[in-house]
Amino acid sequence: MRITLNAENETWAEDSLTIRDILARKHWSFPLIIARLNGDLVEREDYATRVVRDGDALELYHLVSGG
Amino acid sequence: MLDRPLPSAGGDGYPSGMTREAYRKRLSGARVGIAGCGGLGSNCAAALARAGVGRLVLADFDTVSEANLDRQFFFRDQVGRPKAECLAENLRRIDPSLGIEATVRRLDPEGIVTLFGGCDVIVEAFDAADQKAMIIETVLSRLKGTWLVAASGLAGYGRDSALGLHVSGRLVLCGDLESEVGADLPPMAPRVGIVANMEADAVVSILLDGRIGEST
Q1: Which of A31, A32, A66 sits opposite B154 (nearest CB)?
Q2: Is B211 helix (H, G, I), strand (E, B) or coil?
């Protein structure tokens, strides 16, 4: 599968991966993330089940405290 | 100076032929929500007031403390008073004709929809990451037509080239997405101010152009 992750191309051998799989592959263990799949917000409790497929656009943004 | 047209279009990003007065006229009709009146919100609101945004909706539950004076747009004689009210006073000293609604309350999803539902753009200016997530999730799911300009990653000093603008539909994230405030990495006036002004600049771009960068 070939997707865009934060507007950069990513290619993996699998046909599909969950958002949690992708976070693990990237070694992103951030506690607070905003995830959008093809523009739609993905709730945190759905990261383990929401499937990303070839051609999808995934965005993952890390939120940290400070203001 | 007042009547000098800004540079015209052709790669520099300015709409053609607009004068300072035309910009201010367009901004004066806008309504912008400021969620949180701390380091980000107070400085962002000041920039928007100076730029000529006509109506600001301010909300914060907290009071001004002495420690806030190292980076927030408040003054020593305001210590102990609600930030939303003090910020309204300070903004009116910049422009008495500003339309300001100041609310002293802790924002939850219901409050965000009620208070900011009529805004053209909402600025996320909270401190805690879980509150940032809360407002982003609320606006993306319940106020889909409204732009949200948020901030993540602004602690410490230096590394200004790491500060960026991340545009995702009508969500704009300002900051480096990693510098978290902590005991060894305090929020400091210069870098907080840069990100607060990045947020204000994103708001102005959205209000004047209806978009930001390559987004639609």
Answers
A1: A66
A2: coil
Q: Which of B132, B140, B153 sits opposite A41 (nearest CB)?
A: B140
Q: Give residue B13's pLDDT.
A: 52
pLDDT value at B4 more than 80: no
CB B87 within 8 A of CB B58: yes
Nearest to B122 by CA among B14, B191, B47, B45: B45
- Are B192 and A66 in contact (CB < 8 Å)? yes
DSSP B173-196: EEE-S----BTTB---HHHHHHHH
Backbone φ, ψ for residue B51 (5° rounding): -75, -20
**pLDDT digit string, tens, across residues B49-90:** 999 999 999 999 999 999 999 999 999 999 999 999 999 999
Per CB-CB distance under 8 Å, the chain B contacts of A31 are: 129
Cβ–Cβ under 8 Å, residues B132 and B152 = yes
Q: Record the pTM.
A: 0.92
Kindly report the nearest CA distance between residue B8 and chain A, in angstroms: 30
CB contact under 8 A, A66 and B127: yes
